């Protein structure tokens, strides 16, 4: 389904107050002596993308598609890509990479900030020790969000799993499998720490989004024409506006 996986899928509670560098902290993907047994990988470890490798190429990250998953794209008003989500039956998974210093520790700082922010929003927060270190779980009236992160060579990758509280455990397993086979493409450009690495869409998704926009524009024109002609039923049988959700690449 995803290629190599982490051998450790369980999680245990951790002390949020533990300082940086304490045992049980985050794995630094750039310092494993014999190389990591599982990802996320730096692009230098796996090379350029190949046809049929099974990962969705988003420029700064290449992520495996869960079985039966779909791709949901959020766009800025400017037309640039805000984020790309992998939608599953249990919820959605979002992977993003950020510029980081050469020394590890950024994820732990981010995890602490996420915990504080979730508590400020009145969520029930649990910090656990997962395969790569700290995972932050927030549960509120609107559902659950689990944050995973890994420090790599000049990058930090974050995975967010969000969905109903009833499926958050199953979604967490899928999220770890996705993160374990994700490739991060940092590039050589100097960037401020915590800058989000740019996301680009593969050509097939661009074509699908363009088709959805054209269909939505056609629908809007038909609705306007129906209103002008006074047809009360003209808009009731037309297709709904596309939501930017597309199947995963085959």
From TrEMBL:
<feature type="compositionally biased region" description="Basic and acidic residues">
    <location>
        <begin position="14"/>
        <end position="30"/>
    </location>
</feature>
<dbReference type="Pfam" id="PF12502">
    <property type="entry name" value="DUF3710"/>
</dbReference>
<dbReference type="InterPro" id="IPR022183">
    <property type="entry name" value="DUF3710"/>
</dbReference>
<feature type="region of interest" description="Disordered">
    <location>
        <begin position="1"/>
        <end position="64"/>
    </location>
</feature>
<protein>
    <submittedName>
        <fullName>DUF3710 domain-containing protein</fullName>
    </submittedName>
</protein>
<feature type="region of interest" description="Disordered">
    <location>
        <begin position="220"/>
        <end position="250"/>
    </location>
</feature>
């Amino acid at each position: 389904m995803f290629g190599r996986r982490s051998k450790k899928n369980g999680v245990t509670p951790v002390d949020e107050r533990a300082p940086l560098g304490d045992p049980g902290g985050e794995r630094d993907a750039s310092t494993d002596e014999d190389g990591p047994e599982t990802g996320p990988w730096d692009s230098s470890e796996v090379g350029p993308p190949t046809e049929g490798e099974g990962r969705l190429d988003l420029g700064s990250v290449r992520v495996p598609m869960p079985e039966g998953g779909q791709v949901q794209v959020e766009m800025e008003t400017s037309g640039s890509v805000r984020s790309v989500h992998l939608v599953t039956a249990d919820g959605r998974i979002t992977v993003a990479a950020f510029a980081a210093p050469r020394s590890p520790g950024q994820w732990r700082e981010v995890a602490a900030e996420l915990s504080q922010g979730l508590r400020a929003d009145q969520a029930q927060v649990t910090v656990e020790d997962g395969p790569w270190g700290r995972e932050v779980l927030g549960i509120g009236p609107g559902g659950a969000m689990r944050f995973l992160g890994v420090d790599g060579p000049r990058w930090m990758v974050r995975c967010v799993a969000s969905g109903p509280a009833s499926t958050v455990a199953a979604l967490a397993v899928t999220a770890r499998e996705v993160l374990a086979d994700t490739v991060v493409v940092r590039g050589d450009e100097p960037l401020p720490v915590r800058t989000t690495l740019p996301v680009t869409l593969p050509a097939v998704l661009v074509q699908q989004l363009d088709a959805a926009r054209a269909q939505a524009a056609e629908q809007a024109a038909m609705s306007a024409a129906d209103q002008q002609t006074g047809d009360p039923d003209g808009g009731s049988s037309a297709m709904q506006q596309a939501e930017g959700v597309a199947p995963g690449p085959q």
